[in-house]
Amino acid sequence: MNQPNDLVAARVPDLETLRAALESTGYLADRGLAGALFLALRLPRPLLLEGEAGVGKTEAAKAVAEILGSPLIRLQCYDGLDAAEALYEWNYPRQLLSIRLAEAREERLAEADLFTEAFLLRRPVLAALTHPGPAPAVLLIDEIDRADDDFEAFLLEVLAEASVTIPELGTVRATVPPVVLLTSNRTRDLHDALKRRCLYHWIDHPGTDRLIEIVRRRVPGTSAELAAPVAAAVRRLRTLDIQKAPGIAESIDWISALALLGVRRLDADAADTTLGTLLKYREDQELVRERGLDWLVGVPDA
Predict the structure, then answer these.
(1) Are the CB atoms for 277 and 254 separated by under 8 Å?
(2) Which one in 15, 113, 235, 301 has a CA-CA gap of 20 to 30 Å to 64?
(3) CA-CA distance, 163 to 146, in Å (whole number)?
(4) How many domains does the chain have?
(5) pLDDT per residue over 208-250, tens digit each?
(6) Structural domain of residue 44, as residue ranges?
């Protein structure tokens, strides 16, 4: 297990300090999420954050990086992602140039001369492991559920030992192990071997009151008279059988659009004009319009 980082301990000595620090970045975390982040930082252990898209998983990693004053190194996962794209590759044009320069000088390069640190291109995982500190880098492995089984298997060494093996160079072990946050939208189940190496927290959609607080912080100047019906409308949408329920990001976009249009009170016309900021599938928009825009904005008996 990685050893605690003294600088991290100084920045987040206890849970309440971390909660206050998260709030200062504009990220509002309940006690459960703050507790999971605190343990990930102080034990330290990788943390797997699961939840539907748009509940703030990626933003949590950004907030942690801001608190630590560390770089956020993001690996966006996708189907077909392999270890080389996540870890490293060799700078082949530079290697070829070195070969030609050696030939011009009538020198001979050994294979070992071409596979050194000087020719190594660090991709996100290796960049996080070799970050010099003193604060650890924050490695965000985003949407791990989009990658395949082989990539999960590759990550096991990284998660368990903060190290990777490069055939030409040997094992690279982090001197300042990164803070590792993984996110998943749960489009598929992850393997137990990966979960065993991580702490875990499920992030749910925020309640109405918390959503009001979040959007008012993220869109300064938003009145309670506008934020409250927007939050209530988002809650109503989650009662419908739609393909993609709006998350925090969409709620913030909706408030921003309404503010830009000068809307002070949410009504059916304003909702109709701005529905595309909230719902990103035509079928979802049609379903809401069939149910009624008056119902969406809370007109009584709609």
Answers:
(1) yes
(2) 235
(3) 23
(4) 2
(5) 999 999 999 888 889 989 999 999 999 999 899 999 889 898 9
(6) 6-83+122-202
